[in-house]
Design a protein that fits this description.
- The structure is a homodimer.
- By secondary structure, chain A is α/β, with parallel strands linked by helices.
- Chain A has 2 domains: 235 residues, Aldehyde Dehydrogenase, Chain A, domain 1 (3-Layer(aba) Sandwich), CATH 3.40.605; 149 residues, Aldehyde Dehydrogenase, Chain A, domain 2.
- Chain A is built from 15 helices and 16 strands.
- In chain A, the strands form 4 sheets. Chain A has a 7-stranded parallel beta sheet. A 4-stranded parallel beta sheet of chain A has the order 5-4-3-6, with helices on both faces. Chain A has a 3-stranded antiparallel beta sheet with strand order 1-2-16, with no helix packed on it.
């Protein structure tokens, strides 16, 4: 069977299964999620045996130590997958919720009801735990899902899918609700992106080149997450200690992730007081500073920033620093170089806080808090499937509710249109 | 200048203008909309002069009478555009509204705030009034808009844009907030669909081939509206008079539109009583019936339906009729042949009404009411920009709120992540 045919049949089966999943009660879904968690723990040895096949192949192919580390399934990986499943089971079920209801002059009662999207395709790299996390969120939201993980992780992903299938079978649910693409061939991705008849949404998770490839080839709507070039703006009258804490936490707490700080913008009135305090803390932590000319007047030890630094997503212990003459310049800089991901202001001024919140066009805008809070768990959405930096459908962290949509339901007593 | 360059510069200018429109107060926007309405009425002669250029060209090109009718701008067309503008001015402004707010254990206050999408591209056919209707809705929602109308209507669309520009200029707003593509060349559409750097959303309005072209060529998210193959299901215990009224209104009140009834599904227990009543009313109105074998046993005068009838969007005085053995068969038929647009049940049974509402996967599902109510105005959204039959972002009629998105705003007091 050709790859196109395989993928097409998988997508058609997913569509059919999605009808059954959409009609599941919350209880049925949560029981299945809990049962999958138990089964993963019980079948730990079987999972790790398949994972060692992937690892063996990865070593033969000369993958880097970091890549092999991401690929490895340990006892703790399985515990974390099971924990994730139990967390998702505990989340509120969005399906069937009535968002709002109103009455029309002719007596019709109109409501918006949350419903699943249908079939979701997820294209991601390497880590096998994403297979379980993504499947759990999609399933809880009443969707069927087709998972295409990294080719290095195929054996691991397939054994995870088999375990999910065993549980779904026992629960009388269609196993096609959760499917893993059974080939390493890259053609499978292109074939998946052409199934607009069956698949409602594609979510790519991975580097920029993967996302660009998906956007360019997909006829299906794509929820994308490009890079996070995040900013903290320290306002003229900020509390200097608070500003240093927030900048430090935003940059250093986990520098390799998308909500980490990349460029610090500092009002010129506070620069002389703030920059030395900040530089001392960052210096001790081993962060390299790259400053604009005004920054370097105050911090001569800092390297000079070039035009390449302002749009850079370092994901590393490097920070660009720019002194600005006012908040307008900061907002303009963010608009020009930012990625609409996460931006924070540190200020005591009510009017500027308010204006920053309104005028900065990013998925999460914070006052006096770390950029590291742009995260579904931290913001209270529960687990997240990603952070959308495009504005359609969802902008910012996407939880289980963002994997649903709404339809209108209308209750009448024989009304016709005149 | 090449078409690509023209379009790219327009898109970049729209992006810039969108920042200013996003920051406009409700009052500024509403004043501008009212001023455009007044100006259109005042400049009626100028508009009709340009329109007659389009009409002259259309006649030379041999366009059909129906197409020329759609293209013609009369006094009443201008009155209707001005009326639409005043209606949109009266709508509630969604921008800046807080959807919900919650507090996290660490004291952070998290809210979702409505914000404009940014730049919207609208690709449509023929009718010049769409130029004003679409511009008004996009502008009210705080967006900039690029309009690409039918090539036959270029002179009309351009004079409308000039009038909008005059008003925006006088109000101190950037005229690039509303732009009309200044060429008939089809390349302009392809160029528009490639401006993913500047344009946030594309809305095609027109026939299926236009929509398919846009979906296949766009790198920008598309909100599409394919055909409406709408159903009414008459349940076993429906009130026969009510069922006949609803079926008749759904089919006949305006047969050429997407929310008109195309297939009537009738429970076998009520078929012998209902079908003759229904057939008499439809017969008098000149509707051709195409029935399944069971229908034709009761209505021997009806034509026989073929496989081509069930997925057909007639947009005409033709109705397919099928007798089903129960509601499950009706729901399955709708899932197989419907277009996720509008479906209604007529019933007295609470349980089946409830199940139909939950299980039918269409943008608007009604109990005991006409399918013709799937319309932004009728459902209380105000004016609408279209009816989305894809599930992402908006499903069903799209009003001014659906032309916005939300961002997260977070208020802290120095919180960092631990």
């Amino acid at each position: 069977m050709s790859i196109e045919t395989t993928i097409r049949e998988m997508a058609a089966a997913a569509k059919k299964a999605s009808v059954a999943v959409a009609r599941c009660s919350t209880q049925e879904k949560d029981r299945a999620l809990m049962a999958i968690a138990d089964r993963l723990e019980k079948e730990s040895a079987r999972i790790q045996a398949e994972n060692s096949e992937d690892l063996k192949r990865a070593r033969e192919m000369g993958l880097t130590a970091a890549m092999i580390d991401r690929l490895t399934v340990k006892d703790s990986t399985i515990a974390s997958m099971a924990g994730g499943l139990r967390e998702v089971a505990a989340l509120e079920d969005p399906v069937g919720a009535i968002q709002k209801t109103w009455r029309r002059p002719n007596g019709l009662t109109v409501s918006k009801m949350r419903i699943p999207l249908g079939v979701i395709g997820i294209i991601y790299e390497s880590r096998p735990n994403v297979t379980i996390d993504a499947a759990a969120l999609c399933f809880k939201a009443g969707n069927a899902v087709i998972l295409r993980g990294g080719s290095e992780a195929l054996a691991s992903n397939q054994v995870l899918a088999r375990i999910v299938h065993d549980v779904l079978n026992e629960a009388g649910l269609p196993k096609e609700a959760v499917q893993v693409v059974p080939t390493r061939d890259r053609e499978a991705v292109t074939a998946l992106l052409a199934q607009e008849e069956y698949i409602d949404l594609i979510i790519p998770r991975g580097g920029e080149s993967l996302i660009r490839f998906v956007v360019e080839h997909s006829r299906i709507p794509v929820l994308k997450h490009y890079k996070g070039v995040c900013h903290v703006y320290v306002d003229a009258d900020a509390d200097i200690e608070m500003a240093a804490d927030i900048a430090f936490n935003s940059k250093v707490q986990r520098p390799g992730v998308c909500n980490a700080l990349e460029t610090l913008l500092v009002h010129e009135k506070i620069a002389e007081d703030f920059l030395p305090v900040m530089a001392e803390r960052f210096g001790k932590a081993g962060v390299e500073l790259r400053g604009c000319p005004a920054t370097r007047k105050i911090l001569p030890a800092a390297a000079g920033a070039t035009d390449a630094d302002w749009p850079a997503e370092y994901l590393d212990m490097i920070l660009a620093v720019k002194v600005v003459s006012d908040m307008d310049e900061a907002i303009e800089h963010i608009g020009k170089y930012g990625s609409a991901h996460t931006e924070a202001i540190v200020t005591k001024d009510y009017t500027r806080a308010h204006r920053f919140l309104r005028e900065v066009d990013s998925s999460v805008v914070l006052v006096n808090a770390s950029t590291r809070f742009n995260d579904g768990g931290q913001l209270g959405l529960g687990a997240e499937i990603g952070i959308s930096t495009s504005k359609l459908h969802a902008f910012g962290p996407m939880g289980v509710e963002e994997l649903t949509t709404t339809k209108f339901i209308v209750l009448g007593e024989g009304q016709v249109r005149t």
